[in-house]
Amino acid sequence: MTxxxxxxxxxxxxxxxxxxxxxxxxxxxxxxxxxxxxxATLEASRCLQCKKPKCVEGCPVEVDIPAFIRLIAEGxxxxxxxxxxxxNSLPAxxxxxxxxxxxxxxxxxxxxxxxxxAIGRLERFAADYERNQGKVEAPPLPAQTGKKVAxxxxxxxGLTVAGELAKMGHDVTIFEAFHKAGGVLVYGIPEFRxxxxxxxxEVDYLKQLGVKVELNAIIGRIMTIExxxxxxxxxxxxxxxxxxxxxxxxIPGENLGGVYSANxxxxxxxxxxxxxxxxxxTPIIKSKNAAVVGGGxxxxxxxxxxxxxxxxxxxxxxxRSREEAPARAEEVHHAEEEGVQFKFLSNxxxxxxxxxxxxxxxxxxxxxxxxxxxxxxxRMRRYPIPIDxxxxxxxxxxxxxxxxxxxxxxxxxxxxxxxxxxWGYIATQDDAxxxxxxxxxxxxxxxxGEATVISAMGAGRQAxxxxxxxxxxxx
Length: 475
Ligand code: FAD
Ligand code: SF4
Hints:
Layout: H1 21-24, H2 37-44, H3 54-57, H4 65-73, H5 77-85, H6 91-97, H7 104-107, H8 119-132, E1 148-152, H9 156-167, E2 171-175, H10 184-187, H11 196-208, E3 212-214, H12 225-230, E4 236-239, E5 245-246, E6 259-261, H13 262-270, E7 289-293, H14 297-308, E8 313-317, H15 329-338, E9 341-343, E10 346-353, E11 359-374, E12 380-386, E13 392-395, E14 398-401, E15 405-406, H16 410-414, E16 440-442, H17 445-448, H18 453-472
The structure holds flavin-adenine dinucleotide and iron/sulfur cluster.
């Protein structure tokens, strides 16, 4: 009797090499090194090439995942990058910051009995390979349509809409309030998670497509949206100004010295390069003990930045438990490995100051989770309840508040004929982002509230198609 042929063994999910936690906690270099060709090809060989790929259903921009993975498995890395770019214009960024574990990878059939294919890592590999080989090429552009489009804001949504519209032959100008383009990708997400050079490469690519970028240009101050359309000759406008106004805790002591919003803290460090002060113009506090309030990605980024800026102790103070923390599991894991200390089920109730008006303590109360209740979106959630008499104080000289953000009111104040919802976000009439003002579209965080890079990009893609149709209809 002959033995049955053995089933080919599938290799395990390939880990991505990364900097040692003790070393990286003191530098701003990127944490993971990324796959090399060998690891990428091996990981790609795990894909089953499903006929009805579930992974694609989980991708907000419907990347043809099995097709690009097959190209990597065959060694055609440039082809893989181009396949992804058919629907995702920023793969090097998405491969680094997208929550793949909740989107494509959670749907991967291999995840049912083991580890899903590392789709995000493969996406990053293909995009990096193309860029590092100098093989990023602008596609042939159609004849110019003569139509002008203004894009307000250069985050992932604005960058996406600009690229798509330029590829359709329109004349696109991005207006950006800051002195650098990229939105949260440059001022929020730190260098050790998303190197700025990668974002800059994407902006340079848009310029190759003919997109113009006006920096230090705050719409609502230098001119209004109405003026863009009526005086400056733009035929349409896309508003992607994000949700960058920080929320605060509303507790006593929040005005003390040493208390920052995460937005200010991260902007100082990332965009203004405060960690290179005095070589850069902007200083940042030197902390000994820093507490970050919140449990999302912004809180993890702030805590890991505080460590790199030299703090001895960095605490994450979060009123719910670890399971409820909205940050990506990978970010919590990285923060923990680097030495961030977590105080779950703890809620700050007062910030204490010294005689000089600087924060010196954070008074917290211990919380417990109540019975599950339905929230306004119909989800069952357990709400934290304070435990009487459980107050405690943490010694701190820095507090960073990372509990969410709101829309900036400048556009709503200067565009009276456009509809906004009760929270100040732009009200859109359909998924393509049409607003109540003719010729004006909007998308990304300024419509949805704080969301993700990929959802902001998805909105930009859909709006580009709608704006193109609007312009072709004779705007
Ligand atoms: P933004 O990226 O906010 O860009 C808006 C741009 O508009 C900014 O550059 C702003 O300066 C400009 N602007 C504002 N007003 C004006 C004006 N009046 N005139 C001209 N320009 C203006 N998402 C993920 O998917 N994964 C992550 O890991 C992740 N981590 C994050 C970490 C941090 C610290 C933060 C803050 C967010 C994170 N997010 C993450 C969320 C994600 O970055 C956002 O959802 C996304 O950037 C929204 O894109 P956007 O284009 O709508 O706006
Ligand atoms: Fe490959 Fe998983 Fe997608 Fe199937 S679901 S095609 S195995 S990545």
